[in-house]
Amino acid sequence: MIMSCVYKNPNAAIEDRIKDLLPRMTLQEKIGQMTQVELCVATPSDIRDLSIGSMISGAGKGPLEKAMPSDWADTIDRFQQAALDSRLGIPLIYGIDAVHGNNRFYGATIFPHNIGLGATRDADLAQRIGAAVALEVRASGIHFNFAPCVAVCRDPRWGRCYESFSEDTNIVRKMTSIITGLQGQPPVGHPKGYPFVAGRDKVIACAKHFVGDGGTENGINEGNTISSYSDLERIHMAHYLDCLHQGVSTVMASYSSWNGCKLHAHHFLLTEILKDKLGFKGFVISDWKALDRLSEPRGSNYRHCVYTAINAGIDMVMVPHRYKQFIEDLTSLVESGEIEMSRIDDAVERILRVKFVAGLFEYPFSDRSLLDTVGCKPHRELAREAVRKSLVLLKNGKNPGKPLLPLDKNAKRVLIAGTHADDLGFQCGGWTRCWQGSSGRITIGTTILDAFREAMGEKTEVVYEKYPSPDTFVGQNFCFAIVAVGEEPYAESAGDNSELIIPCNGSELISSVAERVPTLAILISGRPLVIEPWLLQKVDALVAAWLPGTEGRGITDVVFGDYEFEGRLPMTWFRTTQQLPINTGDNSCDPLFPLGFGLTCRKEKPVG
Length: 608
Fold this sequence. Notes:
It contains 19 helices and 17 strands. By secondary structure, it is of the alpha/beta class. It is globular and about 80 Å long.
């Protein structure tokens, strides 16, 4: 009987399939589709019996140590089979935060974080990276990527600054091309706002976090964005139109508030603007445990939180743990008439639309032919290209006529030092292997030290000391030194920082070397940091390398002159934190380096 249904017919129009399936569903099955459950609490029987619509591997959970993508595919396929064994056989969508590569997985290619990509201004590069990430995500059986973050970061004190392409809306608009890489290129005439996924080698993308997440007061994560509607639209919303034109399938609501009202409770912005005015036809998903944050203390009065969020326009809820409580409360709210069935039907219609668009009814299981793409050489070369193009040269030589760069590969003896010279975890930053990131050889990749050792001539002596002492320099006669310092990994609120000094005595470490040897300082950070005038004067050359990921060779490609510096600042580089927030166009803007600044080894680039 079911096999003859319209919704099972791959040749039927998607809207006809939705119209056929929706009336067949019970209230329990509809609410199940609106529910996203974490892997650690899910059971196959509940996925089947409750018709659960989505699962997630939460970023806060420690990854399976060196688990292979095939192991993940096995696990996800097992839960998918449980979903297909349900009465109507509606497939699961499985989601993950693959925000700079399939970053939970050992051996995956880790690309520069978004702030580095913003420094490239290269829309084609972003699209190619999106396509590579899609392959590595689909190889592990996952269909849904909670990316890209299209926040416009107006204050580097924000702990998610590195997830933003730029403080400039126009740069963010350009870099939304990553969505076309993730999902595929919609055909000419594709209706704006209608979701699009090209095939089995593409993923369901998610533009986040709607809206104003990067504009909170004092850069406080999950804080309050205070602005007029016109400024909200001009700065923080304009690029969502670009996302919708590319057929982005889902949008994630922001934890933050706009003028004191939380976005997860904001009917005007989620429903009247995003869905009605902008014409978004995909589904709106909540952030992790976001409904719990709608009351104080968090998680209290949960029934009212569910009422508020669903009526505001949230379609799928990233519960992620107490899903039975969510289902019970939402069922009660519908049966009591507090939430109308038309709102439930709208949410489920949107979820089904994305599932049909993504081809999950036809191809619900993982494609093992993609496994060889994870960490493959072409993807690592692409990441290396991204590193090269993201590097911003802030200083080159103490005197105009005496540049330090490009460096000599055949120098007799060089010193490499610093906390970040030989630490792959620091180089990758947060959202790598686990939510907050970590230190050390956390995956497969090339550190800055590895890259220099590989690039230097056979007769060059490379001396590495993480913390060089005065004795290090006695009788050594180093030709030059590389000092790599910067931020330790962090994510979200853990990264909120009002001081923004270089951690681990990074300034002092650079200074202690630079006063003895001509020094290139490489700053590994997710945002501009305080560079004191005395330090800038003392160092010979300074490069902002952002959070470059696993391919450290991209740095040596440029500093040795094989490629020219191309990166330009995606954010205004402040002089002191007292200036913050400081953005291009501000009347009082007196930055250390303006938005768009970047030197080359030949001449300064125009600012813009």
